[in-house]
Amino acid sequence: MAIDRFSLDAGILFYAIDRSAGEKHRMASQLVARALDGDCILSLQAVTEFMAAVTQKGKMPSNEAAQIVRDWISIFPVVSPTAADLDAALALVTAGRAALAEAMLVACLQAHECHLLLSEDFAGKSKLGQVEIVNPFARPAPKSLAFLLEEAGSDE
Fold first, then answer.
1. Which part of the chain is the PIN domain (predicted)?
2. Cβ–Cβ < 8 Å for 29, 136
3. What are the pLDDT digits (tens) for 21-67?
């Protein structure tokens, strides 16, 4: 079963390499692997946040993190924000709906016809603009992610 275009945020990418994260690592690494079979795009923002997080938290040396980023950007389409995306993000911010970083990510994804973001962040928001935000680690597992989670989740 195919699903609509989706994206993974920096947190999911981070857990995919963080072996100390236990079940979240297992699930995130499976999500990244299964994303290869779907219409997954990555935002430039997510991969740069990933690079900053793993190096600043000492999870890996910068040369290893850079190679992972290079691998991902050679596999997944990477989308970048435009001035129009900034304008859309500012509208969300001034309406009190999101912080700027969240709003920029969502505006960029929305502009690239991506309406599903996998993230455990976003302060409990389930939708921002036209982008549905789903926590893949939530239990019970979100039904909208059955394609990605059928092998990644635990045997419940």
1. 8-121
2. no
3. 999 999 999 999 999 988 999 999 999 999 999 999 999 999 999 99
Rounded to whole angstroms, how far apart are CA atoms 151 and 43?
25
Diameter of the chain by CA atoms? 45
Please count the helices (runs of H) and the strands (runs of E) in the chain: 7, 6
**What is the pTM assigned to this prediction?**
0.89
pLDDT score for 19:
94
Instruction: Tell me the C-alpha distance between 16 and 33, whole Å.
Output: 9
65 in helix, strand or coil?
helix
Q: Which residues contact 141 (CB under 8 A, 6 or more apart)?
A: 149, 153, 156
Query: Which domains are present in the chain?
Result: 6-147 (3.40.50.1010)
Q: Is the peptide bond before 140 cis (omega within 30 degrees of 0)?
A: yes
